[in-house]
Automatic annotation (TrEMBL):
InterPro entries: Ald_DH/histidinol_DH, Ald_DH_C, Ald_DH_CS_CYS, Ald_DH_CS_GLU, Ald_DH_N, Aldehyde_DH_dom, AlphKGSA_gudD. Keywords: Oxidoreductase. GO terms for molecular function: oxidoreductase activity, acting on the aldehyde or oxo group of donors, NAD or NADP as acceptor. Belongs to the aldehyde dehydrogenase family. Transmembrane segments: none annotated. Pfam families: Aldedh (PF00171). This is Aldehyde dehydrogenase (NAD+).
Amino acid sequence: MTHYLNYINGEWQQSANNQKYQSINPANTNEIVGEVENSTAVEVDTAASYSHQAFVSWKKLSGAARGHYLYKAADILESRLEDIAETMTKEMGKTLPEAKGETARGVAILRYYAGEGMREEGDVIPSTDADALMLTKRAPLGVVGVITPWNFPVAIPIWKMAPALIYGNTVVFKPALEASATAAKVIECFKEAGLPNGVVNMVNGEGGEIGQRIVDNPQINGITFTGSDKTGKMVGQGALNRGAKYQLEMGGKNPVIVTNDADIDLAVEATISGGLRSTGQKCTATSRVIIDEKIYPTFKEKLLKKVKEITVGNGLLPETWMGPCVSEKQLNTVLEYIEIGEKEGATLIHGGNRLTDNGRDQGFFVEPTIFENVTTDMRIAQEEIFGPVLALMKVKNLEEALTIANDVEFGLSASIFTANIQNMLHFIDDMEAGMVRINAESAGVELQAPFGGMKKSSSHSREQGQAAKEFYTNIKTVFIKG
Ligand SMILES: NC(=O)C1=CN([C@@H]2O[C@H](COP(=O)(O)OP(=O)(O)OC[C@H]3O[C@@H](n4cnc5c(N)ncnc54)[C@H](OP(=O)(O)O)[C@@H]3O)[C@@H](O)[C@H]2O)C=CC1
Ligand SMILES: O=C(O)CCC(=O)C(=O)O
């Protein structure tokens, strides 16, 4: 078992309280993947203080110089892709191909933002004074607190830290405990890329202690968070109270609409991939499948046939298609929602059980689960489950499908499967979601495009691509008169 320390001011450091957290393998709870510090608020304050000092010279570097460090970190991450992906699979359960894909995405994100150091950062705006020059330029926020979940332990920290750094901010990072060993391996890449001391810091520990102190520490000027709706609200309120800038990415209840002219095989593939890959633990995962009644029987039959072929097991095994839930807590949440669905009167047509046979008794495995006769008022149609559970809903036409699709508090991602251009245009205009996808699954994010949701899914900000600049910088309007 490897022990990972906090990373503060360029050094691996122990927490003063000497308490540890053990990160276990959700496919085999006998295996401890790593041990990290279970730190206190004191370490956050120390990290924030060094980060604040490092900011002074980091922001003075040219964008190209900062980009150089990110290119180096990308190369190191790429050279360790196999090891980091394997740690991810062992630590949070997603299959090895998915973990490798995510780590490769981390490399690509680092390179994208490294290049950003050489791109334009403002506009020239005509002044009403003919003798003046008016322009905008970007100023970094200062120290940025990065609070991340366990479901994308490489991609999410990197899509937050890389833009923070390239625009001249320094970072105090708190990864989710369930993915803390993977996070430490990512931080090793930054260390070995030679970033100046204090520019990137990582403090491990519980959200209520470490995350909360990031929210409250006055030296932290901006906070970026991905996670649950409940915690996100607290983070946003805490930041607002002390005037820190904040950005929140939270839940989803993402629909896929299948119209009567859709390519049914394609829609079935996308429903399975979007809803069940990563064991349904994506904020962009499909959870509601809204199907035209004319094709409903065919769609259902094809879906069931394919879902029955899914192999559930340890994500390191080549034959596994779906890994375990990340933790016992998450497994219990999923099982609880399955019970709620049955009590509410939905019909369970596949799955619904924990899997303990064939050596799976030491893991948090659950069957891929499908309900039908789900109505929009049910909790399984309204609340984020974050597990491999699909709710089938039958509708008469696209109008009804859109009404149901929009009848939730979330608005992150949504898909439609149709061959009709009018249906596509109607969906693009009237679907209340930050990402609308046509003939493609609801999950899936491209690093160069804005990512974020409407309604309760986000703080109405966007991450990734050029959109990241809006959060990690402040605009300065400059007026120069000769
Ligand atoms: N949008 C998304 O991508 C995600 C959504 N979720 C949703 O959230 C549910 C619960 O998952 P969970 O992991 O508990 O999500 P949380 O929102 O609790 O965790 C996300 C991050 O916030 C930290 N955190 C916890 N409490 C606080 C706090 N008071 N102040 C600041 N930071 C805090 C966590 O730390 P730590 O966990 O280490 O204590 C973790 O790093 C899931 O079932 C799912 O519905 C979960 C993960 C990702
Ligand atoms: O779909 C993806 O690749 C990213 C989803 C995501 O950001 C999340 O689940 O938190």
